[in-house]
DNA sequence: GCGATGCTTGACGTTGACGTAAAGGGCATT
DNA sequence: AATGCCCTTTACGTCAACGTCAAGCATCGC
């Protein structure tokens, strides 16, 4: 456990946090503008404490689970310093539940799409068998590709 | 099977399609603007054929599975009339796969959140047991609430 | 003829989360 | 002294997918 990051005197520049979390300075200033961060200053320059860093982590995690900056701020405002983490966790779970509902709707669409796809394939196959039997191998390939996609046995989530 | 809707002479006004699919006229005109629909005209007025209607269905379904209008247009442009449906199905499946990747990332976040939540609960309990044993019942309630959320046994997705 | 509807086009507004450019201070190296 | 880099602020731009007027035909029933 890196107590290093917990030591109160440990501070961060804006760029340090940006590179650590793959954010941009503009984004951090934007969060500050929206009242999500309030780093100290050294002259003009922002100085982020380990607490600010923890908050930033919460902000980014909140975003990933689908919270808007507005919602995140409300969480921060509603609950005191003490258990921001716990409060956001509760919210995150709620949001996640909602997202699951949306996903189930989408899965229905997908299921419909898959059904149509199979039907279309069959139609096409019958059509080809009738008119252009010479093209049948290709159609079989296409169908095979689709089945593979559905089963998820190929393309190990190719990078980028 | 409602051949009614397949008969070429069957046409639709903008409002008919809007009410059927719960869209707005503005939206349909917007899709047209973006080259996704090209209804005929009767004087000034748009006249949607059953083909236009089929395309609209594809547009809406595409949106539901996470395609942007731009992407939908590309599908329409790339593949001819013939198998728009099949083309979009392939795209939809791809998009859905990508979405699953994102979701798995989010699930990781959620898992982390849950872990933190439990840890925090335990810390709090120990703290209370030590300093304010009188408050322990309430803490137990809170913990109970959280467990309920996680298990998903309450709040039957209350309607708006 | 008149108002109510429903259609049209055009143009500007909205929301969220920043991007991007302009203009400048501060500090270090050359 | 000049260059370069990082920081700052202010302010306007962007993107998607429409919403929201505004202004104007056209048709209907009365």
What this model shows, in words?
2 copies of one chain form a homodimer. Mean pLDDT of chain A is 74; it is low at 138-160. The longest helix of chain A is centred in the last third of the chain and has 48 residues, at 84-131. In chain A, strands 1-3-2 form a 3-stranded antiparallel sheet. Chain A is built from 6 helices and 3 strands. Chain A folds into 2 domains: 3-78, Multidrug-efflux Transporter Regulator, Chain: A, Domain 2 (Orthogonal Bundle); 97-151. The first copy, chain A, starts with 10 loop residues before the first strand and ends in a 9-residue tail after the last helix. Chain A is mostly helical. Helix content of chain A is 66%, strand content 6%. Chain A has helices at 14-21, 25-33, 50-64, 69-78, 84-131, 136-151; strands at residues 11-12, 40-42, 45-49. The interface between A and B is large, with 36 and 35 residues. Chain A binds a DNA duplex (30 and 30 nucleotides) through residues 13-15, 24-27, 29-30, 34, 43-46, 63, 68-70.
Q: What top-tier CATH class of the largest domain in chain A fits best?
A: Mainly Alpha
- Spatial extent as radius of gyration of chain A: 25 Å
Helix and strand string of chain A, N-terminal first? EHHEEHHHH
Total strands of chain A: the figure is 3
Q: How widely separated are the two ends of chain A?
A: 32 Å
Domain module tally of chain A: 2
Q: Major β-sheet of chain A, in short? A: 3 strands, antiparallel
Low-confidence stretches of chain A: 138-160
Q: What's the rounded overall pLDDT mean of chain A?
A: 74
The helix tally of chain A amounts to: 6
Class computed from helices, strands and strand pairing of chain A: mainly alpha
């Amino acid at each position: 456990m890196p107590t290093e990051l917990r030591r109160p005197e440990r501070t961060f520049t804006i760029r340090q946090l940006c590179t650590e979390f793959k954010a941009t300075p503009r984004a951090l200033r934007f969060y500050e503008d929206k009242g999500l961060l309030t780093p100290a200053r050294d002259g003009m320059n922002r100085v982020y404490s380990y607490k600010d860093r923890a908050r930033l982590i919460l902000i980014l995690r909140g975003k990933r689970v689908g919270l808007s900056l507005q919602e995140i701020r409300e969480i921060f405002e509603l609950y005191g310093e003490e258990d921001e983490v716990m409060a956001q966790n509760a919210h995150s779970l709620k949001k996640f539940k909602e997202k699951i509902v949306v996903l189930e709707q989408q899965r229905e669409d997908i299921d419909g799409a898959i059904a149509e796809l199979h039907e279309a394939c069959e139609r096409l196959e019958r059509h080809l068998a009738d008119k252009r039997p010479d093209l049948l191998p290709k159609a079989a390939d296409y169908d095979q590709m689709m089945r593979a996609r559905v089963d998820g046995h190929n393309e190990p989530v190719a990078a980028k």
